[in-house]
Amino acid sequence: MTAAALKAVMEHAIERQRAGRVAEAEALYRQVLAEDPHDAVANHNFGVVAAQRGAVEEALPHFKLALDAEPYQGLYWLSYARALVASGRPEAALKLLARGRQGGLAGPAYDALLAQAQLGRGDGLAARGQFARAIKAYRAALVADPDLAEAHFHLGSVLSESGAIAEGFVHFMRRAELAHGEGVAHGVDAPPHRRKHDREQRDYLQSLGVRSAFHLADGARLPGPAVNPTNATPELLSRWWTAEPQVVVVEDFLTPQALAKLRAYCAQSTIWRRDYDAGYIGATPADGFACPLLAQIAEEISATWPEIFGPHGFRYLGAFKYDSEYSAGTNTHADFAAVNVNLYITPDEANLDPQSGGMEIWNIRAPDEPTMRRLNSDETAAREHLARSNARSRIVPHRANRAVFFDSALFHRTDRCAFREGYLMKRINISLLFGAFGASTR
User: Fold this and answer.
1) Fewer CB within 10 Å of terminal CB in the chain, N or C?
2) How far apart are CA 50 and CA 206, in angstroms?
């Protein structure tokens, strides 16, 4: 192919790529590279279109060839580093970016890519259990890009599970602001229980003068205790050590001030972002269910009952809201933790049947993680497993401000519930998880 013909093919390839006809562009770049395997532009652009179709591994050597041929092109450094991050090589990306920085590479695109590489590095370290180094990487990601929502989320998770609950929750809240601060609402294709909830919440908030689609109520810490200290008794501990199955019911769990504030936070905050097929919705730390009051509650649980929770650090929390018109409740399952705290906060007058509305707990534990994962995803198999095990269940009815401590490996589910209509009448339970699955609870 003559030089003129090769130039024409290259021009057509670039034209097709700009027009979005990437398959045609890729074929033309292949023609150019067959004639000149070291052409920098063809290698770079071929790498871009290959990465766009998901062939990152194929793109990598082409990005390297382009950079080797023209190292003064800042775009080539960024494209190569971006592909390294996408291929799961954040450490290599960081080394490449450091070299580029020495050569003057800088700017918003560089900072954003550096943040993504540090995020990937942190994820890899966290997966290997190197939490202190993961925290350092996530912090570095946020230095490069303070508004990287995913880095706030992952840093919040590792910090809170490492004992720095309050600091971790700050990052969860920042993630919620970044992810939902524009107030994007659920679409018309949302399930009916979601549409009903959002309509009722919108009307309720407007009655309070709140017009924003994203709103977080006052969730500050209390100056006094949030967890009722009068429940820290030898009798409760004795019940925990001797109960079979290991289930203890605790009344008046929160102080009156904490219960009132938590109810208001759940009612007035647009934190209910998760939909479940069984007709209920959920709130997670990443969506704003991580206010300072909740951090205080999690901390005080461990401090109030160190004999129970001391060996088991805080792991996670979430809230679940049920509308009796739609919800069948959670399925039969066990949890990936050591000890659960399940707390009910809806006023008792909302419950139409005081003998129900809480939870059903069996006396059978999940034997191992693979079995638990299998049974958690198959209600029929879970019920058959319980039947073969001659399992017996116990109903713990709903009561406002009642908490249930139990071995997380015990199979449990939401009891049937019938609650009054009305936005403030929805059944809400909060679940806090402590420790790792399989850890001894006695």
Assistant:
1) C
2) 50
